[in-house]
Amino acid sequence: MMSFDHPHWLWAALLALLPLLWHGQRTLPHGWLPGVPADPASRALAVALRLLGALAVLGSVVALAGPHRQGEDVERIGTGAHVVITLDRSASMSDGFAGRDAQQGDEAKGRAAARLLEDFVRERPRDLFGVVSFSTAPVHGLELTADHDAVRAAIRASAAPGVGLTNIAAGLTMSLEQFRDKPVTGSRVVLLVSDGAAQIDVRKQNQIRRLFAENRSALYWIFLRTAGGRGPSDPPDPEAGFDPAPEYFLNEYFRDLGVPYRLYEADTPDALARAIADVARLQNQPLRYRETPPRQDLGGLFIGIAFACSLLLLAARTFEVPAWSR
Amino acid sequence: MKFTDTLRGRGARFWLLAAASACLGVALFDPAVQIERRVGTYMMVFDITQSMNTRDVGPADARIGRLDHAKQLAIAALDRLPCGTQVGVSIFVERRTQPLLMPVDVCLNRAALSDAIGHIDWRMAWAADSHLYYGTYSALDDIRRMTPGAALAFFTDGHQAPALHPGRIPAWDGEAGEVPGLLFGVGGEQPEPVPKLGDKGRIDGYWTAEDTAGFASAGAPTLSVLDMEKLGGDIRNAPQRAPGSDNDHLSLRRDDVLEDLAQRTGLGVAVARSPEQIAAQLRALPGGRVADTRFALRPLFALAGLAALLASLAPAPSAVRRRAQRLFTFRSA
User: Fold this and answer.
1) Which residues 91-120 of chain B have a CB within 8 Å of chain A?
2) Chain B residues touching A151 at Cβ < 8 A
3) Residue A106 phi/psi, 5° resolution?
4) CA distance B56 to B283
5) Following CA atoms B256, B261, B267, B271 in sequence, which dihedral angle do they give, to the nearest 10 degrees?
6) Residue A229 lies in a domain
7) Which of A100, A144, B93, B230 is deepest in the core (most CB within 10 A)?
8) What are residue B180's phi and psi, to 5 degrees?
9) Are A18 and A49 found together in one domain?
């Protein structure tokens, strides 16, 4: 379908009626018109010239309105995925990694994650990305989009120091909602990047389980271990008294979701880079995706029509006779 | 007959038509010039504290919340900023700002920008307090640290909760005017109750004086027991509220607070009224960079061609006069 940038110009299309009234030809007086024999060819030519004029006006008016066509989506087969990047922005993301050589002044977890995720997006030009972040409340960043500049801008924004708590349930719910009512044209992934966990109550657990099943999304959890903190693979220590170990139980819950799930524990930026590379490799399975062809400008076509018509009119005018020849 | 002979003696109509053809022919090649324009980078920060839910802005018969109003104005203002301008998005609550989107191009990334701004919601808040001074300083800090050279566009109603004690207003560590920007005031001029919204965005009730009195203001003077006894009365159990904050459950646009903030930080103050005004005031801010913008000449040539074409077809004034004359003689005969 054709659409217009400046549709109000189309009102000027009424000007195309003028050439039908004005022939614009040179007139020569003649002594006795009834004496001239009927000439159907001349009449046809007169009508044709008026129509040419009208068409030239119409062409330039339509061109002024900025016509273009937004192409239909084309389905292609390739490799790619729909990835909702779900970022923890709690206050602890500004702390450093847990790795053995960690020291003061190292890159903060949030910053390292943002840097590596940016590279991840850059290397996957065909994927659609959504961005959700969460601390105490979930924050919508971007809908699933092919605008990778914006996706990287949203990821960069997450490198700002965090605030508040780690409300994973709310973040996951919002991420999964992004898939709702969207066609399944690619494998779906929720890429959860967090440095902590929280207990999820039973009602929320069921809701998240249902959303994962409904939206057929895989889950990759990249866990950034804090110095002195524990990870999802450390079971709670019964000797240590009260030990809720939320990371451990959250991992158990995720494993039980019934969707493809992987856990990566990263305690250095290098480990994080390896985890992201692994996710990239896993997601390189063939899938169908839709590509929107770039918009097609039709202004040239209409100017071309107008130009051709006016050239024909000009040609006709060069054949005008300045006076009756004897 | 030579070609020059064909052209000799051609009237104005012929040359007009030739000019029209020439213009349309040039327009066919889509000519354009690169013009240099100064474009800015702006960080749009939205106050998402609960007072921004007060429905006292917009048309008189269809009041909408201050935050919704600010979002609408900001999205509409995007279309009035020249291509090449970059806009980022951030939210403010409690005493911090949280950037959601670093600056991106208003034309190339238009959809992403309106998506990010359109989804801003009071439920994104991680706390309920509203310390606007700290929030503004945090917004300026973000710019200094993450997007140097950008200007601030802060949409807020200036309402703070809990109120600050006079003389306990936090100072900014930067120089006034170091980061250019504007505080866009949003909200009505009459005190209005602040709604409490439920999960589905329905109004469940309004904040009452009792609700707000339950929160102590930061920076209350610390008195020893001796001081309290000296002052008499039941000071220990009296509400620790800043004087003059009895009506804090009602909210209006606090131009006085915005003015004071502006004085400390060198920012400008304006009431957000229309997208045109917001865009114009942002463009008038100092700073920015020079970017090349493509200025298409096709419409100009097409318009010139159209005018010349119509002129070449229009009947000559003398012909019109003659026809009118003929009509007149016919009638009188």
Assistant:
1) 91, 94, 96, 98-105, 108-109, 111-113, 115-116, 119-120
2) 112
3) -70, 165
4) 28
5) -30
6) yes
7) B93
8) -75, 160
9) yes
Q: Which two tokens stand for residue A171?
A: 């973040």
Query: Considering only CA atoms, which of A216, A58, A43, A173 is closest in space to residue B305?
Result: A58
pLDDT in tens, B241-290: 676 667 778 899 999 999 999 999 999 999 999 999 999 999 999 888 88
Q: Which of A180, A80, A157, A171 is nearest to B116 (CA)?
A: A157
User: Which of B251, B287, B239, B260 lies closest to B171 in space, CA to CA?
Assistant: B260
CA distance B95 to chain A (A): 10
Look at A163 and B94 and tell me if their CB atoms are within 8 Å: yes
**Is B24 in contact with A136 (Cβ distance < 8 A)?**
no
- CB-nearest partner of A314 from B21, B99, B125: B21
- B119 vs A contacts (CB less than 8 Å): 140
> How many separate helices (H) and strands (E) can be counted in chain B?
11, 14
Is B9 inside any structural domain? no
Give the other-Cβ count within 10 Å of A162's Cβ: 26
Which tens digit of pLDDT belongs to each residue from A233-246? 777 777 766 667 88
Domain that holds residue A299: 2-24+40-70+295-318
Domain interval for residue B331 = 23-35+291-333
Considering the domain boundaries, does residue A323 fall inside one?
no
Residue of B nearest to A302 (CA): B28
Nearest residue on chain A to B30, alpha-carbon basis: A300
Look at A165 and B94 and tell me if their CB atoms are within 8 Å: no
What is the tally of structural domains in chain A?
Answer: 2
Q: Does B127 touch chain A (CB under 8 A)?
A: yes
CATH number of residue B195's parent domain = 3.40.50.410
A310, A312, A321, best to mutate vs chain B, most B CBs in 10 Å: A310
How does the average pLDDT of chain B come out, rounded? Answer: 85
Task: Check A314 against B94: CB less than 8 A apart.
Answer: no
B113 conformational bin, left if phi > 0, alpha if psi -120 to 50, beta if neither? alpha
B252 in a domain, yes or no?
yes
Question: Residue A193 in contact with residue A85, Cβ under 8 Å?
Answer: yes
CATH code, domain with A106 = 3.40.50.410
Q: Per DSSP, which regions of chain A are E strands?
A: 2-4, 67-69, 74-79, 81-88, 128-134, 138-145, 187-194, 217-224, 261-266, 286-291, 296-297
Counting one residue from chain A and one from chain B, the pairs whose CB atoms sit within 8 A come to 164
CA end-to-end span of chain B, whole Å? 47
| Any A CB within 8 A of B9 CB | yes
Supply the pLDDT for residue A166.
84
Does residue B312 share a domain with residue B254? Answer: no
What is the tens place of the pLDDT at every residue in B83-133?
889 999 999 998 899 999 999 999 889 889 999 999 999 989 888 888 899
Q: Which residues of A touch B305 (CB under 8 A)?
A: 60, 306, 310
pTM for this entry: 0.76
Dist. CA A127–CA B289, nearest whole Å: 32
Whether residues B314 and A24 touch (CB distance < 8 A) is answered with yes
Quote the distance between the C-alpha of residue A225 and its chain's center: 33
